C-alpha cells in the first residue's frame, strides 16, 4: 500500500493537467475563430520571437556599460629624479588623462562640430545619421569601398572601449545597443571625458592632450582656435591628414577649414573668428618622440624598468599598476649631473684603454633583403657620444662605401676614412666591411669617418652610504648598443677588493690593525686529487712579519691568505655573505677574490662599511605612486610628517630612524675603513691622494688580468667601477686597478666630491685612537702623527682593551723609520712591485 502512493499521486497530477489544457482550449477556441484575434496573437508572437532572435544575435554577451564608470585608460609610467623633476617615461601609448573640466569649451565644441553636433540632444544614437550610414553602406556593397561612419561620439566610445573596431553591420548594431545603455549609466560629460582621453590621433598620441603636445607642443589650454579645429578632424583618420606629406597637408587644411565652418554654422564662433582661423597655416611642429629625453638615464632607467616589471608586471593584463598601462609615478634618487659624470668618465676610460687596438668590427648586422631603412629603424640600435651615429653599409666599392641612417638619409664613407686595422685580420677596416654591417661613424666635412666602439666594457655604480640610494649607474658604453647591464648583471671576480672583508673577519676574531702577520710562504694541502697548493707574492719573495695595515695598503696576497687561514675561512665567508657580496664555499682562494659578484653588490658592501656596518639595500626607487598619487611601494612606506612645513612650529624636528639591521660590528667596520684610508694615502690607489680629502677604498685585479677594479668613497658617498671584456680574457699585463679603474673613479667622483664638505669618518662609541709606529705596530709615546703621506707614527683605531701594551722610545722611532725607508725604496726600484703582482693575482685558482 505504501509503495503505490507515489504512483497514484503522479497519475492524479497528469490527469488534472490534461483536464486544465482541455478546458483552456475549449475557452480559447471561440476567440481564435475571430480574424482580428489571430492577427494580434500572431503579431505578438512574432515580436517576441524577433526580440529573442535580436537578443541572441546582437545583445547576448555584450559587456556591461556600467564598467565604464570605473574605466581607467592606459597611462605611461613617469620617473622623477632626486629633485622631483620628470626625466623619463615608459610608454607604448602617449597619453595624458585629463578631467572634463580641464578641456577648453571651445575645444569640445570643435570636436562636436566635426564628429557629433547633436551629442547633447540624442540618447546615444543619431537616427537620421544612422539611416544615412545604412543607405551609404548598401550602395557600396561589393565596391570594396568603406562606408561612412555615422557613429555618434557615444558609439565611438562603445566601439573603442568595449567591442573593438570590427568592420561589419553587426558591430554597428552592437554599438547602438551599448550607446543606448551607456547614456543611461554615464552623464554626457563623463562620456566626452572618456572620448577625449581615449581617441587615437596619430603620432602615437592617444587623447587630445597628448595630441596637442605631439602636433603643437602645447597643452590643451594654450591651443588656438585653428589648432583646435585641426585636432578635431583627426579622429576620422590621422593618416589622411599628415602634415609631413604635401597631399596630407592639403587635405588637412581643407578639412580644418570645413570644421571651422561647421563651428560657425552651429553658432559657436563668429564669422570673424572663422575667417581668421581659416587664414592661418596649420602651424604643426615637426614630428618628435616623447617629450622626455630617451637618452636620459640610459642603463639606470632600464634597470628601474626591470625592477618595476618584477613588482607590478608589464602589460594591463598583469594588473592595475602595470608599467606600460598603470600610470605609475616613480620617485628615484637618480641624479642627472652625477649620471652624466659617471657615463662620461666610464666611456672615456674605455676609449682610453681601447685606443690603438684597431677596429673591433661591426656593432650588428641587418637583413638587406627586407629593406635597410625599415630594418635599421626597427633595430633601435643607436649611440649617443660626441656626434657619433650608427649607419648601415648599403654598398661598397674600392674607393668609398654608401651608408644609410635610421632617418632614411644617406652619406659617403671614403676608404681613406676607414683605415683602422681590423683586429681579426690585421688589414684595413674598410676591406672587411660588407653590406648590412652596422658601423659607427662621425661627420668628417661633407662625408663621414669610421669610429670604433670599444670592445672592452665595464660598469660603475654610485651610492649614498647612509641610505643605499643609487645616484648613478652606467652598465657599459651605451645601452642602445647593448642593453646588458654590467653594473647589475655581470658576475665578475672582485679580486683584491674582497680583502677588506677578509680582514674584517680577522678583526672580529681577535686580530687588530697592528697585529703582526707573516708575509711568507704558505702552502695548503687540498686533498689527494689536487695536492698541495702554495701561494706566493708576485716577486716570489716576502717581506717577513708586517702589520695588518701594511698588508692591506700594499695588498699582499700571502698576508691575506694567512689571515684568512688563522681566522678560519668559514668565518670569512660568513662575513662576506652577511655583507651581501656572495655565498661562497670556505676555500682560501675566495679570500683573494676568486668568487663572483657584481659592481652593485660590491659598492653596497663598501657603503655598509662606511655606514658603520649597518645593512643597506641598493635603492633605485624611493617610492612608487599609482595614478591617483597613493604610495603602493614600499609596502610599509610612511610620509615624513612635518618635513615640508613652511615655518618651524617649535616642536622636535623630524628624524629618520635606522632602516637596516647591524650586520657587522660598528667598531670593526670603522677599523676597516680607517685602514683602507691608507690605501689612498700610501697604498695601491695613491692616484686619488691629490683629492686631499677623507677617502677610503681598495683596488683589485683578477688573475690574467681579466678584471680591474676600484671601490671606495667618502663618509657620504661610495662608488665602484670595474673594466673587463664580456667574454673574460686578459686585459694585458700592465692593466691594474690603480692604473685603469681608479682614474675612471677619479674622473667621475672628483667633481661630485668638490660639492660636498670634507667630512671625516666618525668613529663609533668605544673606539680608542692610539699612536703607534706605522711599520712595527708598537705603541708610541711622546710623538704626534704628521700630515706626511708616510709618517713614522700614525693614529690607529683599536677596540677597547686591544691596543698594544708595549711602548717604544722616541729615538727608536727614527731608527726604524730609516730602515722602513730603505725597504720601501728598494720595493719602488723594482720593475713590478708586490702590489702589481697582487693586482694580477687577485684571484687564485
| Percentage of residues in helical conformation | 25-40%
Poorly predicted runs of 5 or more residues: 143-147, 830-845
Per DSSP, the total helix count is 24
Total beta strands: 24
CATH architecture of one domain: Orthogonal Bundle
CATH class of one domain: Mainly Alpha
Structural class call reads: alpha+beta
The major pleated sheet works out as: 6 strands, antiparallel
| Rg over CA atoms | 38 Å
Shape call: elongated
Query: Beta fraction of the residues?
Result: 5-15%
The CATH topology of one domain = Penicillin binding protein transpeptidase fold
Mean pLDDT: 87
Determine the CATH superfamily of one domain.
Biosynthetic peptidoglycan transglycosylase-like
End-to-end distance: 97 Å
Could you walk me through the main structural features you see in this protein, from its secondary elements to its overall organization?
The strands form 7 sheets. Strands 4, 5, 6, 7, 8 and 9 form a 6-stranded antiparallel beta sheet that branches. This protein has 845 residues and is of the alpha+beta class. Helix 16 (499-507) packs across helix 18, helix 16 (499-507) packs across helix 19 (569-578) and helix 16 (499-507) packs across helix 21. The chain contains 24 helices and 24 strands. The model is unreliable at 143-147 and 830-845 (pLDDT under 50). The termini are far apart.
List descriptors.
alpha+beta, 845 residues, Glycosyltr_51/Transpeptidase, elongated, OB fold (Dihydrolipoamide Acetyltransferase, E2P), Beta-lactam/transpept-like, Penicillin binding protein transpeptidase fold, cell inner membrane, carboxypeptidase, transmembrane helix
Amino acid at each position: 500500500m505504501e509503495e503505490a502512493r507515489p504512483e497514484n499521486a503522479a497519475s492524479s497530477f497528469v490527469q488534472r493537467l490534461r483536464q486544465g489544457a482541455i478546458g483552456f482550449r475549449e475557452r480559447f477556441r471561440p476567440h481564435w475563430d475571430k480574424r482580428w484575434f489571430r492577427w494580434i496573437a500572431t503579431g505578438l508572437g512574432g515580436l517576441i520571437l524577433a526580440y529573442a532572435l535580436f537578443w541572441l544575435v546582437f545583445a547576448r554577451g555584450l559587456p556591461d556599460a556600467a564598467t565604464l564608470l570605473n574605466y581607467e585608460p592606459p597611462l605611461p609610467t613617469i620617473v622623477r629624479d632626486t629633485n622631483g623633476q620628470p626625466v623619463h617615461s615608459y610608454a607604448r601609448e602617449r597619453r595624458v588623462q585629463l578631467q572634463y573640466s580641464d578641456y577648453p569649451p571651445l575645444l569640445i565644441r570643435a570636436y562636436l562640430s566635426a564628429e557629433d553636433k547633436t551629442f547633447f540632444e540624442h540618447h546615444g544614437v543619431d537616427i537620421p545619421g544612422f539611416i544615412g550610414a545604412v543607405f551609404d553602406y548598401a550602395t557600396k556593397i561589393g565596391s570594396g569601398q568603406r562606408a561612412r561612419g555615422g557613429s555618434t561620439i557615444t558609439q565611438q566610445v562603445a566601439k573603442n572601449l568595449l567591442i573593438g573596431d570590427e568592420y561589419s553591420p553587426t558591430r554597428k548594431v552592437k554599438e547602438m545597443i551599448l550607446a543606448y545603455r551607456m547614456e543611461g549609466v554615464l552623464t554626457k560629460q563623463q562620456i566626452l571625458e572618456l572620448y577625449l582621453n581615449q581617441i587615437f590621433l596619430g603620432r602615437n598620441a592617444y587623447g587630445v592632450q597628448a595630441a596637442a603636445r605631439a602636433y603643437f607642443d602645447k597643452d590643451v589650454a594654450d591651443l588656438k582656435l585653428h589648432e583646435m579645429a585641426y585636432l578635431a578632424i583627426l579622429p576620422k583618420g590621422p593618416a589622411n591628414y599628415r602634415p609631413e606629406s604635401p597631399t596630407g597637408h592639403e587635405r588637412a587644411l581643407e578639412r580644418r577649414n570645413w570644421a571651422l565652418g561647421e563651428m560657425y554654422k552651429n553658432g559657436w564662433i563668429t564669422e570673424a573668428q572663422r575667417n581668421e582661423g581659416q587664414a592661418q597655416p596649420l602651424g604643426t611642429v615637426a614630428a618628435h618622440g616623447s617629450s622626455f629625453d630617451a637618452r636620459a638615464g640610459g642603463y639606470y632607467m632600464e634597470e628601474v624598468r626591470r625592477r618595476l616589471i618584477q613588482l607590478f608586471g608589464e602589460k594591463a593584463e598583469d594588473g592595475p599598476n602595470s608599467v606600460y598601462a598603470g600610470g605609475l609615478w616613480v620617485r628615484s634618487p637618480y641624479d642627472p649631473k652625477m649620471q652624466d659624470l659617471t657615463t662620461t668618465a666610464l666611456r672615456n676610460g674605455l676609449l682610453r684603454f681601447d685606443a690603438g687596438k684597431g677596429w673591433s668590427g661591426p656593432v650588428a648586422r641587418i637583413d638587406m633583403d627586407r629593406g635597410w631603412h625599415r630594418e635599421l629603424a626597427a633595430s633601435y640600435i643607436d649611440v649617443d657620444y660626441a656626434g657619433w651615429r650608427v649607419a648601415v653599409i648599403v654598398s661598397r666599392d674600392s674607393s668609398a662605401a654608401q651608408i644609410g641612417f635610421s632617418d632614411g638619409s644617406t652619406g659617403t664613407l671614403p676608404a681613406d676614412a676607414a683605415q683602422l686595422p681590423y683586429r681579426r685580420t690585421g688589414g684595413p677596416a674598410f676591406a672587411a666591411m660588407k653590406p648590412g654591417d652596422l658601423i659607427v661613424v662621425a661627420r668628417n666635412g661633407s662625408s663621414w669617418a669610421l669610429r670604433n666602439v670599444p670592445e672592452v666594457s665595464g660598469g660603475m655604480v654610485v651610492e649614498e652610504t647612509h641610505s643605499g640610494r643609487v645616484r648613478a649607474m652606467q652598465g657599459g658604453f651605451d645601452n642602445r648598443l647593448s642593453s646588458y647591464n654590467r653594473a647589475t648583471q655581470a658576475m665578475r671576480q672582485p679580486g683584491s677588493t674582497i680583502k677588506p672583508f677578509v680582514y674584517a673577519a680577522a678583526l672580529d676574531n681577535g686580530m687588530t690593525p697592528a697585529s703582526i702577520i707573516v708575509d711568507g710562504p704558505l702552502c695548503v694541502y687540498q686533498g689527494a686529487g689536487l695536492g698541495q697548493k702554495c701561494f706566493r707574492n708576485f716577486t716570489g719573495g716576502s717581506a717577513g712579519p708586517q702589520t695588518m695595515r701594511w698588508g692591506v695598503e700594499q695588498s699582499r696576497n700571502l698576508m691575506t691568505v694567512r689571515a684568512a687561514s688563522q681566522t678560519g675561512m668559514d668565518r670569512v665567508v660568513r662575513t662576506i655573505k652577511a655583507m651581501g657580496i656572495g655565498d661562497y664555499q670556505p676555500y682560501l682562494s675566495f679570500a683573494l677574490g676568486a668568487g663572483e659578484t657584481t659592481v652593485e653588490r660590491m659598492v653596497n658592501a663598501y657603503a655598509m662599511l662606511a655606514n658603520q656596518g649597518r645593512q643597506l639595500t641598493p635603492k633605485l626607487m624611493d617610492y612608487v605612486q599609482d595614478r591617483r598619487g597613493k604610495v603602493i611601494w614600499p609596502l610599509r612606506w610612511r610620509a615624513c610628517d612635518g618635513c615640508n612645513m613652511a615655518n618651524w612650529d617649535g616642536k622636535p624636528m623630524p628624524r629618520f630612524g635606522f632602516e637596516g639591521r647591524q650586520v657587522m660590528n660598528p667598531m670593526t667596520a670603522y677599523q676597516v675603513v680607517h685602514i683602507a684610508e691608507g690605501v689612498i694615502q700610501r697604498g695601491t690607489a695613491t692616484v686619488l691622494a691629490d683629492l686631499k680629502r677623507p677617502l677610503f677604498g681598495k683596488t683589485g685585479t683578477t688573475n690574467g688580468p681579466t678584471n680591474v677594479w676600484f671601490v671606495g668613497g667618502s663618509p657620504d658617498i661610495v662608488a665602484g667601477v670595474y673594466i673587463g671584456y664580456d667574454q673574460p680574457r686578459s686585459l694585458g699585463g700592465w692593466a691594474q686597478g690603480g692604473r685603469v679603474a681608479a682614474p675612471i673613479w677619479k674622473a667621475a667622483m672628483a667633481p661630485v666630491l668638490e660639492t660636498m664638505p670634507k667630512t671625516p669618518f666618525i668613529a663609533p662609541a668605544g673606539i680608542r685612537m692610539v699612536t703607534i709606529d706605522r711599520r712595527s705596530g708598537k705603541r708610541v709615546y711622546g710623538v704626534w702623527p704628521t700630515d706626511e703621506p708616510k709618517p713614522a707614527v700614525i693614529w690607529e683605531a683599536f677596540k677597547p682593551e686591544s691596543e698594544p701594551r708595549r711602548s717604544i722610545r722616541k729615538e727608536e722611532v727614527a731608527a726604524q723609520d730609516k730602515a722602513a725607508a730603505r725597504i720601501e725604496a728598494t720595493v719602488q726600484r723594482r720593475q713590478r712591485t708586490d702590489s702589481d703582482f697582487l693586482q694580477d693575482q687577485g684571484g687564485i685558482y
